[in-house]
TrEMBL record:
The keyword Transferase does not apply. It holds the Pfam family UDPG_MGDP_dh_C. SUPFAM superfamilies: 6-phosphogluconate dehydrogenase C-terminal domain-like (SSF48179), NAD(P)-binding Rossmann-fold domains (SSF51735), UDP-glucose/GDP-mannose dehydrogenase C-terminal domain (SSF52413). It comes from Phormidium pseudopriestleyi FRX01. This is Nucleotide sugar dehydrogenase.
């Protein structure tokens, strides 16, 4: 029987000399970039992806994540450093296992941990001494210790901190960010026993420039949800200011641009048509839900969510007003929505406010088209929509263009020149020298 110090020492040595086999569960926008980074420095990486088509694409080096360079993926796959499977049969080969699965919300805005629970049970059946398990999925404080640990210990018969090691290290991926990548974004790591924290820190230090330790997995979990709650609350403040400026007949962009010239005591946040993506619309509700367990009301979080969810309706109202100025009823108008993605220059349209706006306009009977250079087709309330080519004729044929996502590829000067009217919900046109009489800002 191998004793605990030997188990820990052996795993640390494997990590240092990079003979450790790394498992990554979930090869999406978090998992695949992480897997590629580990493979680039010489680790053997086995990816587990429940979607067999995605697993096959990885094995063909057929890239589907924009934050991964095609050449990097081809190189690590061709050298045998990265491969993927759609089952858990090879868990025993892995020395460190990183979990990057979705953590959505239910319709009632409560946490849905079904993916984490399912993966934990699969791992527990094959867990062996000397393995590290690290959860990167965003979740409420207590998930790693209270949900995962009991399952891993009971099914495997092993003990955390002596037989196996368990940590939480929240992902900090910002899709489309050209400056901060997996490698150079500071990495927070927390674990509830010193051995797990030690080995998890060493593991992440192999490919990430700076690792920040916190005292527990629960603290690491709270770090992540606070980061996104901070953004949600401040975006809501900017959105509420936009609603107020609309009543005051003031330009919210002018006010914010001027306020942000102050060299201290302020941080730029801007309004928009709503919040989207995998983090800001979801993560604060994890914290809000957990707080209720302690009879604590998170008023700021609840209010921020309420304000942000109102914004698509406000855009709809602005569309009505813009159409009214040119004598068009919504049900007899043609509207072109610019952008379907939740943020500029990416292809991800999960929780996108642009989709919510399209749904509302379709309910109003608007003849709707959209253009997005990154999203070729979408489904909106049973409607299969295909991105139209952005020709002069397509722009001139509609009554109103709504800029819902401010992609950098768009020639906004030309767009304004050819359009009859433009509603800009992102402030993309506010600094342009053009015919601003055509443009309505949020």
């Amino acid at each position: 029987m191998v004793n605990s110090p030997q188990i820990l020492s052996a795993l640390k040595q494997k990590i240092r000399d990079r003979t450790a086999v790394i498992g990554v569960v979930g090869l999406g926008y978090v998992g695949l970039p992480f897997a590629v980074e580990k493979a680039k420095v010489g680790f053997k990486v086995l990816g587990i992806e429940q979607n067999p088509e995605k697993a096959a694409r990885v094995n063909r080096a057929d890239n589907y994540i924009s934050d991964v360079k095609d050449d990097d993926l081809k190189q690590v796959v061709s050298k045998g450093y990265l491969e993927a499977t759609s089952n858990f049969e090879r868990v025993g080969e892995m020395d460190a296992i990183v979990i990057c699965v979705p953590t959505p919300l239910t319709k009632n805005l409560t946490p849905n941990l079904s993916y984490i629970e399912s993966v934990t049970q699969e791992l527990a059946r094959k867990l062996r001494p000397g393995q590290l398990v690290s959860l990167e999925s965003t979740t409420y404080p207590g998930t790693t210790d209270d949900v995962m640990r009991p399952v891993l210990e009971q099914i495997s018969g092993l003990q955390q901190g002596s037989d196996f090691f368990l940590a939480h290290s929240p992902e900090r991926v910002d899709p489309g960010n050209q400056r901060y990548t997996t490698k150079n974004t500071n990495k927070v790591v927390g674990a509830s026993d010193p051995h797990s924290l030690e080995v998890a820190t060493l593991f992440y230090q192999q490919t990430i420039d700076h690792v920040v330790q916190v005292s527990s997995a629960k603290a690491a979990e709270l770090v992540k949800v606070f980061e996104n709650t901070f953004r949600a609350v401040n975006i809501a403040l900017a959105n509420e200011l936009a609603l107020l400026c609309d009543r005051l007949d003031l330009n919210v962009w002018e006010v914010l641009d001027a306020a942000n010239t102050k060299p201290f005591g302020i941080m730029p946040f801007y309004p928009g048509p709503g919040v989207g993506g995998h983090c800001i619309p979801l993560d604060p509700h994890y914290l809000e839900w957990k707080a209720k367990e302690y009879n604590f009301e998170t008023h700021f979080i609840a209010l921020a969510g309420e304000v942000n969810r109102k914004m698509p309706e406000f855009v709809r109202e602005k569309v009505w007003r813009a159409l009214n100025r040119i004598g068009k009823a919504p049900s007899k108008s043609q509207v072109l929505v610019m952008g379907a993605a939740y943020k500029k220059d990416i292809a991800d349209w999960r929780e996108s406010p642009a989709i919510s706006i399209m749904e509302l306009l379709l309910q109003d009977g608007v003849n709707l088209t959209y253009h997005d250079p990154f999203v070729p087709e979408i489904q909106v309330k049973g409607h299969n929509l295909v991105s139209v080519e952005l020709t002069e004729e397509a722009i001139a044929a509609v009554d109103l263009v709504v800029i819902a996502t401010d992609h950098s590829k768009i020639d906004y000067l030309s767009l304004i020149d050819k359009a009859q009217a433009v509603l800009d919900t992102r402030g993309a046109t506010r600094h342009l020298s053009c015919n601003q009489e055509k443009v309505t800002l949020l």
